[in-house]
Amino acid sequence: MCLTIPGKIIALEASFATVDYGEYGARERVNTSLVEAKVGNYVLVQGGFAIKILTEKDARESLKAWEIISEELRDSGGIV
Predict the structure, then answer these.
(1) How far apart are the first and last CA of the chain?
(2) What is the 3-state secondary structure (H, E, C) of the chain?
(3) pTM of the entire structure?
(4) Which of 32, 52, 67, 80 has the CB geometry, 3.0–4.6 Å to 37, for a possible disulfide?
């Protein structure tokens, strides 16, 4: 099973986008040929491809869930 964290497209060039994962401190260049991406879109990325565009609301809800999971892992002594 693969898990993805939403990222925001900050630049587009042909069929590739730079995706910023914000507070997670990572940026990635991904292929956007599977979606109709625009700068400012939030996307889920799998295997180097943007596979789904999310609304900002859905992206923020997903990021909040990741924050809760991270806090629970920290509090329980699990790996973050």
Answers:
(1) 18
(2) CCCCCCEEEEEEECCEEEEECHHHCCEEEEECCCCCCCCCCEEEEECCEEEEEECHHHHHHHHHHHHHHHHHHHHHCCCC
(3) 0.82
(4) 32
| Tokens representing residue 27 in the block | 């940026």
Contacts of 59 (CB under 8 A, 6+ apart): 6, 8, 42
> 9 vs 38, 46, 57, 74, CA distance in Å?
7, 15, 15, 29
Phi, psi of 11 (to 5 degrees): -160, 150
pLDDT tier, 60 (very low <50, low <70, confident <90, very high otherwise) = very high
Residue 15 pLDDT grade (very low, low, confident, very high; cuts 50, 70, 90) = very high
